[in-house]
User: Fold these one by one.
Assistant:
Number 1:
Amino acid sequence: MQVWRRLGVLDLADLPPSYNANPMRYIALAAGGDVTLRTARPSVEDSRAAGAADLGSLLPVPQDTLIGITASGRTPYVLGALQSARAHGLLTVGLVHTRASTVVREGQCDYVLECPVGPEVISGSTRLKSGTATKMILNMISTALQIKLGNTYGNRMIDVHPSNVKFASRARGIIRDLAGQVAGSRAEAYSGGLTHDELDGVIARCGGSVKLAVVVVASGWGVPLCVDALERRGGSLREVLEDVRYETVVRVFV
């Protein structure tokens, strides 16, 4: 998924640490390159050719999706990228904040998300209402995608990458909470008796995968068996934990 405009860069930047997402699958481009993230250069948005060239440099394939973000619905850079994406067979989506826009008239999008926000408090300052609406919509899209991919369990980020103190603490809490919900799982998981070091050791044995560590602690199975269980269930932690519950019931009552 490629997303244009600085807010697109901001939205995608959080996916790898929060969901252990492959950064090569979520690519954000801004007209003029990364330097424009700190210093605005409005003129770089005026080239259709630049948008098409930047898209082409990624070697897109028909399995890719492009979301073109333009509050006015007429930014040349975005229009050029959408046209190029359509020529490469990508699924194309336009995100605009006005009706009857150029994005709609040119017909380069499979879907257009129109979110009219009305005149800005400061006329033409699209970083205000348009920017806020854009961020909210991108949050919905990227979060729904991660849920669909099975990277969440309830409201927990089960594929969080424990790369710093905050995320490591979150990972331990997720393992304790979810493993403790499985009837018959090990007493340490219920009581929270596993120490930080012990939980960190489990995560390390699981190659940093919090999802896999949940299965290991909840089931008491070895890592290879837990890997196989997740693979058989298409990576769905919910389904694997149901298997663990069933296995526990059978073991206790049969």
Note: The first strand starts at residue 2 and ends at 4.
Number 2:
Amino acid sequence: MFIGHFAFGLGAKSMAPKVSLGSLLLAAQLLDLLWPTFLLLGWEHVSISPGITEVTPLDFTHYPISHSLLAVLGWSIACGLIYWLLKRNRRGAIVMGICVLSHWMLDVVMHRPDLPLYPGDSPMLGLGLWNSLVGSLLVEGLFFALGVGLYLRSTKAKNKKGTWGFWSFILFLVFVHVANLFGPPPPEVTAIAWTGQLQWLFIIYGYWIDGNRQNKNVQAPHLEAVYH
């Protein structure tokens, strides 16, 4: 899953309007932000096996630090706690933790049985929606539309940047998603790991977008107030 995780971050804005979109996307995508670095360090492993599912050629052979349920619970608590220590926003901290946990829950729906419950000799979970290209497109597409709709219902643009910046972000996410689905398999694991680091740009862009938008229950200052 790719845009589905971003969808959860977008939709979470309606639950925690004081939290920046960048922070919500960071939490929702945290596991996949950590995973490429763990690949480079040799702590986790993946192989490229075209045809293993209809959607992705990746065989996630070993990723207990980033994607086991026990580890994810730890990442979730840590993320929420760090946010609370920085912002003293209890609601925001809870939503941040939920966003981290949501990643694993959504992955369970999509993945084949390769998600461990805990590091070591663990049972593997996965409902395998990736075995159906049509089903994956339908579920993830509808979920993404819901996330975009919730974000738009919760915020409005302060200026033109807030409008075109948001929609360019959405279109680029869709473009990357389609390229992942229908493009050729990655040439090697190292390429996956380094390309995965580019996801941080989405997080930075999320902070920029949110800086040019505001919650719909917050009034923009009148021009008269600016000059007094």
Note: The chain has eleven helices and six strands.
Number 3:
Amino acid sequence: MNTIYAAAIGILIGIFIFGLKTGIGCGFSKLEKKKVLLLASGYFIISVILGSLVGLVDQSYLEGIANLGMTLHVLIALILIATGIYTQKKWNCGHDVSKKTFLVISIPCPVCLTALFVSCMILASSLEMSGWKVGIIVGLVFFLSVISSTFVFRKMGRTPEDLGTVMMFLGIFYMLGAMLVPAYIKAKQMNISAMEGGSFEILPLIFFSIFILGGFAFNHMRGQ
């Protein structure tokens, strides 16, 4: 029983961390409090709806979504990177478009909705609770995450240029996930150790990631 509750707490902590992405977009764009509350409430309602659908959605639909998972990751990654570049370019030209572009990082995306639904499904099964009750719990955690993180990130006093940087960083993170996760799954299926034969293939990817992050750091230092 203790293990079940520990797993449930771990999932809820993961949901809270997942909500930070929305909080970053709202906080860095300095979105009005009413709109932040509206967005957080929207996530709460969506969570309750998804929780209510637990047990009603056929497993084949989830398998279909899972098969599209990496494709969605790549698509979202490209959108985040492009929007981040656009936000920075406009800010450097004297135009603040963060009130619009923040939606790319803050509104529910297919990956986010899938994560919420799977979390509701696992919690409902583990805790033996009805789906709508689990949806309320998940929704409250996400709601609190968005509200609290928005307040914290707003206090940092960041500019839309920083929002663009975060978007590009998250885009690269999504892209790396889309490349590494299938390779990891394939390695596990082939029962091959991660250090056997795969180290040389992953080294260029690591170097490429460090190169990109170093470019972001240099650009930030140059801007200061």
Note: Residues 90 and 96 are 6 Å apart (CA to CA).
